[in-house]
Each structure stands twice: as structure tokens, then as C-alpha cells.
């Protein structure tokens, strides 16, 4: 808190109304290999299906289903066109880390890992566990600058240490699960026990009107 300037104190105080586990990377689970702290994915999906959400339930679900089918096909075709083994975003972040790693310095190694200096900070890299005390490698699955420095020190390829979740093979497996085709609504079989009935009539509060309203009143 002492390092936050006056402009950021209001934001910091607003964040404190929520548990730090929801917005601080220090508490993030490292299983998913994603260090995003925003909710843009959910908001983007809601905007993507906004028009469909205005329709009755059956038509809404049908339109969302078709949009998802086309999205899966388009994304699979895009992944097939990748020239490398990993996604372009992954390689872009990896290249950024590589440039930072060139400014890092190896101090030595021991049983607990490698000590790497970046500016005024020092971090410990455990290549066997694929972890670094900065937690970037743990969170995003891409070797952080300190890990890259240690891997290059061992004369190995840092690119081979990127997590499989970010590989082209993993993406293709994700998009290989297709939604099965469906016939039109007129071919659907409706079970009598599941037939949709109109809602029950509910009498409105107050005395019912007897006289009709005159025009102009």
C-alpha cells in the first residue's frame, strides 16, 4: 500500500473489498497456465451472444449452438495454419522474455536450483520442477526470463520447456470435440410428459375494472 500513489489508492481500496484470492496472482492456481486477472473472456462471450439472448429460449439456444459450431470450425482452421509448434501469442510472449533474459545474470547453481539476477532482484529457478520464485513460469507455462537464463546456461533449448497446454497439438485436441448435427424443429419428438404448457393464470391485485375507459380519458 505504501508504494501506491494517490491516483491508485482509490483503486486499491476498491480491490480490498474483494478477497485477494480473486485478483492477486500470488494466490492464482497454476494448473491452467493462465495469468490473466480480468474477466474479459466472459464479457466478450456475453457480447458475442447478445443478439441471440433477445430471442425465445429455443431459438436462443439454437442460434448460440450454430455460432459455437462455426467458431470451433474457424478456430480449428486457424490453428492448422500455425507455422510453428506453439501459438503466435505464446511465441510473442516467449520472445519478450528472451529479450529480458539477455539482461539477466547467472550467479551459480546448487541443490535447490539456479540463482539468477535481474536488475536489483534475485530469483531461484528450479528446472526440474519447472518453477521460479517470480511465479511467471508457474502461472503462464512459458519459461520466464530467469528460467531462460538458467536453461541457456545449461546449453539447452528454452523453447522445448514451454508447457504442452500451449502447443498446437493441445489446441487441435480442444477443437476436435464437435457439436453433433441436429435435424430441424419439425422433426423433434415431444414426449407428452415434457410438453410445455402455458403459465398458470394469476389474478392481479386490486378490484377488477367494470367500466371501459372512454376515449380521450
UniProtKB/TrEMBL annotation:
Pfam families for this protein: SWIM
Taxonomic placement: Eukaryota, Viridiplantae, Streptophyta, Embryophyta, Tracheophyta
Protein name per UniProt: Uncharacterized protein LOC104241919
Compositional bias annotation for Basic residues: 206-217
Region (Disordered): 196-217
Residue ranges of every copy of the SWIM-type domain listed in the record: 114-155
SMART domains, per the entry: ZnF_PMZ (SM00575)
Keyword Metal-binding among record annotations: yes
One MF term in the entry's GO annotations: zinc ion binding
Taxonomy, superkingdom: Eukaryota
Native species: Nicotiana sylvestris
Keywords: Metal-binding, Zinc, Zinc-finger
